[in-house]
Amino acid sequence: MFQFILKRLLLAIPTLLGVTILTFILLHLAPGNLAQTLAGENATPAQVARITHELGLDRPVYEQYGIWLSKLAHGDLGFSYRRQASVLSLIGERIGRTLLLMGSALALSIVIAVPLGVYQAFRRNTLFDRAASALVFIAWSMPTFWFGTILIALFAVQLRWSPVGGLQTIDTASFDWPSRLAHLILPAATLALVSLAGWSRYIRGSMVEQLQEDYARTARAKGLPATAVLFRHTLRNALIPFITLLGGTIPALFGGAVITEQIFAYPGMGQLFWQSATDRDYFTLLGMTVITALLVILGNLLADVLYGVVDPRVRYD
Amino acid sequence: MIDATLTLPVDEGFPRRRRVHVDPIAAAGMVWIALALLACWLAPFFLHIDAYATDVAHAYAQPNGTHWLGTDGLGRDELARLLIGGRITLSVGIVAALVAMFIGTLYGALSGYYGGWFDSMLMRVVDVFLSVPTIFLLLFLAALFNGSELTLMLVIGFTAWLGPSRLVRGEVLTLKERLYVEAARSSGAGDWRIIFRHVVPNAMGTIITTTTFMVASAMLAETALSYLGIGIRLPVPSWGNLLSSAQSDLFARAYWLILPPGLAILITVCAFNFVGDWLREKQT
To answer: So what's the pLDDT on residue B3?
Structure first.
């Protein structure tokens, strides 16, 4: 097990390097003078020259990449001239919020998708199953931002049950848990929509498959109640491949966070990414892509390890 | 002619015409897609209103006899914009899906067919792309090459080929072991001929199914990019930017603008997903 984790971590290094190269290439496709873009419109020529020199922008691209990479190895993600802060501190300030948002969305999505899929499989081909499938398809086909706006219009504007957006109520200066959670509900519900449909369909499909297996019929035949078979026998087996699916959804959740945070003016990583993409904040974009890729790789690794914990047939050789 | 399929037992090994059973929901999806395509492209023949003509005197008109779906903040006819916007969103969806499938099929087929270190190298590249959220790549590319429909199609297509390439690779890995591939090779066919004449055509089922889902997700990508302000630029209408501008029109109490583009996207994306789901079930 330990060796497996170590091997996977080592394999993650070339992937991460690939991500940095990919991002570097993409950024260098951008037209215009990079130093000028970084310094902002009002920068003096002297400032632009200084930035050019500091970042080695007057040197070949591969040397720039080398400089950036050696800094990265020392934990330095660079400096955002536009935001006058180090990229690491910009990300550090926001990453917790985005992870909290993603975690709540994930939890909400599982809490809805798993029971729904199980019940649909148990009552398959009934009216309920069909109606639920249709709803799931609609959820799958809905633009995220439209769903978010409907939630705002309904729960925040009409019913006034929840705040419209933001991180917490402004007049509370200090960290305020109840207010933060209240501001989290609608964004989490919106983000949950990204994964909800796929997951409930997946659970339904694999539960239908498991319920037709011999062991499920045997368990029923020896007199176990249906719920015991469902939850103690078939659900366990249906959930095993689901873990891998969870790991694979992390990039989509990050992607969904970009839109969700935009709708609810939630100051997290997604919002920062969108802002720095629009004002071409070079190093912030690079740093965020690397950190996100790292989290995605770690998430997939965690899913693989959990897979082995849940399924004793898996061996790590 | 007598319909023999109903009376005779199934005769193995003899190809005969089979009735294709179409799931009613999938059939409804196909009909909707056909109607949407016809309505959008034939719009100039039955609707004689210019989608770009502004008429500030009749801004924010509610649905009425001349403007069936009302007008927007500049007095432009919403129905005309919806139909012209549909052309753009549908063609972005379809072309982006074709671009993604073209790259994905080529990449996956080569990777699966040649195998070995070549395959593992190509798949590592896919891993790299997959560890970056798609919307990050979309934001990068759309911010770099801002503007036209064509670039949007290419940008969405270029970010969507990863999943298809893995699927095609998986298919090719099993297909390349088949006897007919062996037969083709022993009769002197080259690699390219085997890949594109024997292997890929047999993976067509997977490819077509995936394309259908890709159209749906590419249309959603168009709406998401329009919402973020880097999709199709106004005044050119698209379902995505009609929907996102309708949200700000809500402040002017123009509630009638929000439903048409929203429903158009929802139903059309649903239709493609229904058809895709039916194709997938039919395959297994």
So the answer is: 47
**B72 to chain A, closest Cα gap in Å:** 18
pLDDT of residue B68 exceeding 80: no
Chain B touched by A30 (CB under 8 Å): yes
Helix pair angle (B204-227, B259-283), 10° resolution:
160
Burial A163-196 (b: 16+ CB within 10 A, else e): bebebbeeeeeeeeeebbeebbbbbbbbbbbbbb
Q: Does A131 touch chain B (CB under 8 A)?
A: no
Are residues B127 and A153, on separate chains, in Cβ contact within 8 Å? no
Query: What is the longest distance spanned by two Cα atoms in chain B?
Result: 76
Tokens of B165: 């390439």
3-state DSSP assignment of residue B41? helix
How many C-beta atoms surround the C-beta of residue B51 within 10 A? Answer: 21
- On the CB side of A25, CA atoms within 13 Å amount to 7
Task: Return the closest-CA partner of residue B153 out of B211, B215, B105, B210.
Answer: B215
Per-domain residue ranges for chain A? Answer: 20-76, 95-310
The two three-digit tokens of residue B89, written as one number: 């969103």
Residue B7: band (very low, low, confident or very high) from pLDDT cuts 50, 70, 90: very low
> Would the pLDDT of B248 be above 70?
yes
Tell me if the pTM is above 0.80: yes
Contact predicate B80/B235, CB 8 Å: no
For residue B234, what are its two tokens? 């106004």
Contact assessment for residue A303 and residue A106, using Cβ atoms and an 8 Å cutoff: no
ipTM over 0.85: no
- The answer to which of A27-36, A137-146, A290-299, B165-174 has the lowest mean pLDDT is A27-36
Residue A80, helix vs strand vs coil = strand
What local confidence, expressed as pLDDT, does residue B90 receive?
A: 94
CATH number of this structure's domain A95-310: 1.10.3720.10
B246: chain A residues, CB-CB within 8 Å: none
Model pLDDT, residue B2: 45
